[in-house]
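Late entry, uridine-5'-diphosphate-glucuronic acid complex.
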Amino acid sequence: MKKITIIGTGYVGLVTGAGISEFGHEVTCVDIDKNKIKKLNLGEIPIYEPELKSIVKRNKSKERLKFSDNINEAIKEAEIIIIAVGTPQGDNGYSDLTAIENVAKRIGKNLNNYKIICTKSTVPVGTGKKIEEIIRLNSKSIKFDYVSNPEFLREGAAVRDFLIPDRIVIGSHSKKAFKIMEDVYRPLFLNETPIINTNVETAEMIKYASNAFLALKISYINEIANLCDSVGADIHVVSKAMGQDGRISPKFLHPGPGFGGSCFPKDILALANSGKKNNVKMNTIEAAIKTNNEQKLRMVFKLRSLLNNKLKNKTIAVLGLAFKPQTDDIRDAASTIIIPKLIKEEAIINTYDPVAMENFKSLKLNINYFNNWEDAVKGADALLLLTEWNEFRGIDLSKLKFLLKTPIVLDTKNILSIHNLHSLGFKFDNVGRKVIN
Ligand code: UGA
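Prediction complete; structure with ligand written out below:
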């Protein structure tokens, strides 16, 4: 059992804290936001993440997981400190490392004995070295080892991804640190989860290379889907057949309105910038970014075409605001680009999302919110579906036709049956699936 302090209680920090306490370690999660800690101590979870509440509750009651705003004390007590603060995108497209640097300073000032300092936050290659330097400058020559241990958690499936990962990446220049970190993940180690021991820079690069590759895969399939639209091929069958080739794999071959979220858009841009900085061409990465931006606009174009090029005064029912299902996160979601464009063209927006509406309200857009899909579509000129929530997959299309003023649908997630839409007489579009056999 190790004493571990996690700094930052965002979705990475919280899931990591809960997951590591589930492995039997004694974990303290800290944050500068006192209010957040107060709420966590009352059992409130600030984000919507399936299974998180129950795993937090279980480990809190077993006294393996606690929340504190006394960061200095928690640093002093810990054998291992895990940095999980945010690294948002700065104005210049580079990651904003202010929070990371402040944490490193604080760790240095409170370093009282040998510790492992481990970063989970996604940081540009080379940041580990900087963090080490800051800690060293601020500490009184007390020995510590630095580890990069990137996370591969998907929002909406983060707890599961933590407990049953595909691999663990541990980057360090110290053998002792590898051994200690392997002990942290001991239950996974025993389960034969692959553990990749490498240096800090390689570990940092693995995270960016993985996220950017997945983002690139999505942009690629989106372009193929767009071409399917023009040539009469069906992307659904194309993706399925491609995925059966073991070298390609069926995952991340679902076309849509473009990827969003707090990771892919930021990470792929950071990788492109890293290329620029190092004078290395990143043509595929640049293209994936361009395609993704254009894909969102393409959805506006498709909707406009369905409505005979008139969006003015048309009521559009938008179902789904979150960047993907099982999350209330709207960061860089297609909805945040597409809805303002529709408003600019003087369309009226009626919307419903099972959990993301509160977050969307903070954008202060002049749109109407409803408590269920039926009310949102009632009397609308068209339906625009943006997130593949399960409750939208099960929409009764006859009921939908009855509720809409005109039976027009743009399904950007390809979840509604094209055969049923066709036989019920809908005018519809999607991403690469127009064919009716
Ligand atoms: C992503 C990675 O999948 C995680 O492994 C990584 O840890 C995380 O970023 C991170 O860096 O923290 P996440 O952003 O939560 O996770 O969500 P994904 O499930 O990867 O989806 C990202 C976006 O791609 C969503 O907008 C989704 O709708 C879109 N997507 C995904 C597609 O358009 N098509 C697909 O086939 C798959």
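The two ends are 60 Å apart (CA to CA). Will revisit in the morning.
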